[in-house]
Structure prediction request, 113 residues.
Amino acid sequence: VQMVESGGGSVQPGGSLRLSCSYSGLTTLYRMAWWRKIPGKERTFVATITGSSSSTTYIDSVKGRFTVSRDNAKNTMYLQMDSLKPEDTAVYYCNTHPPIAAWGQGTRVTVSS
Prediction:
């Protein structure tokens, strides 16, 4: 199982980014999730999506700003992040939920003016 995250970068508050996660070695049945690690804190999940995309969940702090989606034909998951805030600064990872795969390198998101 391999996860490869991409799409991070530096943006100003209020900006947008779209993260991508390319995964292999998994069936489409797995619930997937975006996770993030803020310096000095534990890694936590940000958003989840079921295998069929029928259900998504978000942590309260990103509801209404982030949207998770997936394309099973491409083995890819996305995270559209709008209205970004400085507190969203973190390294973002993808994995199943709960996590069963080795963590990838992640993609860094920096929100700063």
In short: The radius of gyration is 13 Å. The CA atoms of residues 28 and 72 lie 6 Å apart.
